[in-house]
Specification:
The protein contains 6 helices and 18 strands. By secondary structure, the protein is of the alpha+beta class.
Length: 348
């Protein structure tokens, strides 16, 4: 059983404790308590905003890095888009003349820096047409280059999207024709796009040597002349040569035409004008002709029909000036004679 505390002792104890408490120098007012609470709340709010800002910064920086990592390194659009506005290869082929075959089809899109492309060409006389179209700030420079020596410019193309036709004009012919290999060089400017079709000019010309001369001549091949013959034609004679003299005219003869009532002569020459005559072997006087032939390296043709006045004709004579190369084939077309009167005579 707990003893009850003496009321007088309890009262005395309370008095002593109150006096001791009052003696302690400590004062806590409501205003001070409110001020401490406000400061504590502001501090916590600042801490929360700082944490949110730090988190947002991490998100922004990380997102930017991720976006950079995922961005494609190449151009935004495929190269083909830059070529889509240019004429097609079929359109370029339509612009070619001569009906020759296609040699090369080339195209390219130039990046942020100028680019030079080099493309091998078949070994021949380079009697080609270069059909070119380009777009951009341009221009496009097209050249021929041998394995040694400076490039020979074929032309400068303005990149306006139109079709341009370039041809080699024979500059530095000896260097180009005697080279083991020749390349086509295309220089494109930054941001440009180009398309090119290289076509044979249809002349059938190739590089040929004649005689002991070191010179090279661009003339049609015999195979090309054969391909051009009329239907049913029979070959009677062929020949080629070069007048290597410093001056004067040489005479070359193609024999075996005495049995033909109608003939066709295919001839090509390079140099000065050649004269073609039809004669009798027993006479130096021409029975027909002379017919002048322009020697520009292209195929020329002569048609002739026999008459009473020319029944003795048996040879074709060519008067060839100095430095001129030539080649010719004589065809018998008696089975399908041309509908023209014989040269120098009237129809029988």
């Amino acid at each position: 059983m707990v003893d009850e505390l003496d009321p007088r002792l309890e009262a005395a104890l309370r008095t002593v404790l109150r006096d001791e408490a009052n003696a302690i120098p400590f004062t806590l007012q409501a205003a001070a308590l409110n001020r401490v609470r406000s400061e504590r709340f502001r501090t916590r709010r600042l801490q929360r905003w700082s944490a949110a800002a730090a988190a947002l910064a991490v998100i922004v920086v990380g997102g930017g890095a991720l976006a950079m990592a995922l961005r494609p390194s190449g151009p935004a659009s495929p190269p083909g888009d830059s070529l889509s506005g240019l004429p097609s290869f079929d359109r370029l082929a339509e612009a070619a003349t001569g009906g020759g075959t296609t040699i090369l089809r080339l195209e390219d899109v130039v990046g942020s820096q100028a680019h030079q492309g080099q493309y091998g060409l078949p070994s021949s006389a380079y009697a080609f047409q270069y059909l070119v179209a380009c777009s951009g700030s341009g221009p496009l420079i097209v050249s021929l280059a041998a394995e040694s020596g400076p490039a020979i410019k074929l032309g400068t193309v303005t990149c306006d999207g139109g079709v341009w036709r370039l041809e080699w004009d024979g500059t530095d012919e000896q260097t180009i024709l005697s080279a083991t290999s020749v390349s086509l060089v295309v220089q494109g400017q930054p941001g440009s796009a180009w398309r090119m079709l290289v076509a044979d000019d249809g002349s059938g010309r190739i590089v040929q040597h004649f005689g002991a001369s070191p010179s090279l001549f661009r003339l049609p091949s015999m195979d090309y002349l054969v391909q051009q013959r009329s239907a049913g034609a029979t070959e009677l004679a062929r020949g080629s040569g070069l007048n290597e003299a410093a001056s004067g005219t040489s005479v070359s003869t193609l024999r075996g035409v005495e049995t033909a009532s109608a003939i066709e002569i295919f001839l090509a020459c390079v140099g000065s004008q050649v004269e073609v005559s039809l004669i009798s072997a027993s006479s130096a006087t021409a029975a027909s002709g002379p017919t002048p032939i322009t020697c520009d390296g292209t195929r020329q043709g002569i048609l002739w029909t026999r008459s009473d006045a020319t029944h003795n004709v048996s040879e074709v004579r060519l008067d060839v000036p100095a430095g001129t190369a030539w080649e010719a084939i004589v065809w018998d077309i008696s089975a399908n004679p041309p509908p023209i009167p014989p040269q120098g005579t009237t129809s029988p």
